[in-house]
Every structure is written in structure tokens, then in C-alpha cells.
Task: inverse folding
């Protein structure tokens, strides 16, 4: 009987310790902040469950990483035997400190990363792309623009010759899966890789100077042409004017110099700037936007003609002229004032 009593006492102590331990474990995995709003959390490539749990603790999402890891190992409706050393899918997730710690970990283990389609349309300046990424919480605009000014940092990412000074014009416009917290570097890498696949390779992998010239002219065409079937003709006008040492007189270059999107005044055309093609008889020193493939292809194979001028009609199409006098008549007909050229 004495032995049975001892066994009973020991069993009671073990049960009490187990119950106390479970209560402590439950307390350590309680939500850290029941009123917390959902937030984004980025899991990096190769990060283990344990490493993520420890980071969640440091960032104030869960109370105790070790308790959370132990809780998901327990054989209970919540414990799934997930362990603490396995790898997670890298990507962005939405989590909350209002959830128990084990629920947070299991969400990261069992769910898929968030996807977010972000449209980068043709004709945007790098600053405008930066603002879109910041708006979608992909990266800060400053982080993005700091890297745009450092093309050499991406030399190992793509095989085409990168420009000097700025990646303006090479950030290919497309719809991307840019989840929140992706970061500026990865976003730029994806845009440059898209440029390589969708522009550089289809154009026949041109050497550096040809590629630069086509991208610059393509950026002008992008902002001058509203319709694809006019891009090669407008490119032809630009080549004709360059061959004759005429100023290109493209309004979009003045707007780029001003960094404003608005109607130009007469004073604006006199701004002393290397991008003001109303003053310089040459191409601007770099692209003025992110052109699409059609515009860059038009710069590669411009239409062969002798037009030197054009003016836009209300429907976005243009009428073209060979002489200035002819151009002035068409300007008066279609806009009754100053023409594009």
C-alpha cells in the first residue's frame, strides 16, 4: 500500500508539474498585443523556422520564440509537429501580434506568400516608378532611386551593357508580382531581367552604343506616339532631323528637365538644360522614360521617309509635313497655334 501511495504522490506531482508547465507555455504563447493590426512580414530565402521565430520575438510579434517552437511540436489540435529547423517559403506574409505565437508560426509554415500585381506602365520616369512601389509598400522611393543611380551594382544580374549614371529607360514597363517588402534591389533586378528578355534579346543583343541610342530615341517615341502604327514614322522624323543637325523640339524632354507633368509655357521652352531639345541640336544625354518594346523597336527600324515635322490631331494621330511652311498650315488647322515642332 505504501508503494502505491508513493506512486500516486509522484504521479500527482508529475501531473501538477505538467499542468503548470502547460499553463506557463500557454501564457508564453498568448497574443502579445490583442489590439494589434495586421502587418507584413518578409521571410528571407533559406531562413529556418527557428530563425524566423527568433526574429518574430525581436520584432515584437510574439512573446517567446522557444515557447512558440515547443507549442507547435505538441500533439494537440494546434501542434502539428512542424519542428524548428525546417525551411520556410521565402516571401511576404501578413501576420499579427493579436494572434497566439504558435498560430503565427503555423501560418508562416502552412500558407503561401502573398502575391501583388503591380503595373509599371510605359512612359513613366524612374521617380514615378519609385512612387508606385512605395505606394504598394514594395520599397521606399528613396531606396529605389538610390539604386537607380548605381547601375554598376547590377552588372552581374544581366548580360546587356548597362548605362552610366542612371538606369532610367531600362526599367522595363510591365505587370510584375511585387509583393510588399520585396525591396528595391529585387524589384530593379526583375525589371532589368525583363528588359534583357523582352528588349535586348529580341533586338539581337546590340552593342552598347546602339542599344543606348535606341533606348534614348525609343523613350522620345514612347511619349510622342499614342498609337503603335505611328511609332516608326515618328522615329523616322527624329532620325531625319538629327541627320540635318536640326533640333528635335520634343516637348516631353522639356517636361523631363522640369520634372513636371503639365502644359508647357513659352518660358519653359527656354530653360537651359541638357535635356531641352528645343535648344540642343542633338539627342538628350539619356532616356526620358521607360519605353516599351514597340518604341525601342521603332528606333531600331524607323520608317524611311522625308518628313521633318508633325502635329497631333485630337484623336492622338499625327499629320506629317516635309517643309516648315506646310507644317505651319497644319498647325493652324489642327490646333490653331504653336505646334509640336
Result:
Amino acid at each position: 500500500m505504501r508503494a502505491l501511495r508513493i506512486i500516486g504522490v509522484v504521479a500527482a506531482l508529475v501531473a501538477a508539474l505538467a499542468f503548470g508547465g502547460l499553463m506557463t507555455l500557454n501564457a508564453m504563447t498568448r497574443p502579445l498585443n490583442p489590439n494589434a493590426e495586421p502587418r507584413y512580414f518578409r521571410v528571407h530565402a533559406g531562413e529556418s523556422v527557428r530563425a524566423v521565430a527568433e526574429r518574430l520575438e525581436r520584432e515584437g510579434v510574439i512573446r517567446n520564440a522557444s515557447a512558440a517552437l515547443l507549442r507547435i511540436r505538441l500533439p494537440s489540435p494546434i501542434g502539428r509537429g512542424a519542428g524548428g529547423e525546417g525551411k520556410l517559403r521565402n516571401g511576404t506574409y501578413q501576420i499579427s501580434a493579436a494572434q497566439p505565437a504558435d498560430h503565427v508560426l503555423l501560418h508562416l509554415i502552412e500558407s503561401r506568400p502573398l502575391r501583388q500585381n503591380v503595373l509599371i506602365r510605359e512612359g513613366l520616369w524612374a521617380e514615378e516608378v519609385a512612387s508606385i512601389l512605395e505606394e504598394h509598400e514594395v520599397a521606399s522611393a528613396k531606396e529605389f532611386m538610390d539604386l537607380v543611380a548605381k547601375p554598376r551594382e547590377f552588372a552581374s544580374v544581366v548580360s546587356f551593357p548597362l548605362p552610366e549614371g542612371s538606369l532610367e529607360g531600362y526599367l522595363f514597363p510591365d505587370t510584375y508580382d511585387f509583393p510588399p517588402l520585396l525591396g528595391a534591389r529585387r524589384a530593379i533586378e526583375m525589371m532589368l531581367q525583363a528588359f534583357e528578355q523582352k528588349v535586348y534579346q529580341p533586338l539581337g543583343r546590340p552593342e552598347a552604343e546602339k542599344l543606348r541610342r535606341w533606348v534614348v530615341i525609343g523613350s522620345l517615341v514612347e511619349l510622342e506616339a499614342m498609337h503603335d502604327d505611328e511609332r516608326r514614322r515618328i522615329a523616322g522624323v527624329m532620325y531625319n532631323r538629327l541627320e540635318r543637325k536640326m533640333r528635335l523640339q520634343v516637348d516631353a524632354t522639356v517636361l523631363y528637365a522640369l520634372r513636371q507633368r503639365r502644359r508647357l509655357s513659352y518660358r519653359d521652352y527656354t530653360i537651359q538644360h541638357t535635356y531641352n531639345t528645343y535648344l540642343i541640336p542633338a539627342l538628350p544625354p539619356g532616356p526620358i522614360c521607360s519605353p516599351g518594346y514597340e518604341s525601342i523597336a521603332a528606333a531600331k527600324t524607323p520608317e524611311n521617309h522625308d518628313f521633318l515635322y508633325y502635329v497631333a490631331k485630337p484623336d492622338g494621330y499625327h499629320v506629317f509635313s516635309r517643309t516648315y511652311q506646310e507644317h505651319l498650315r497644319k498647325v493652324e488647322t489642327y490646333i490653331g497655334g504653336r505646334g509640336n515642332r
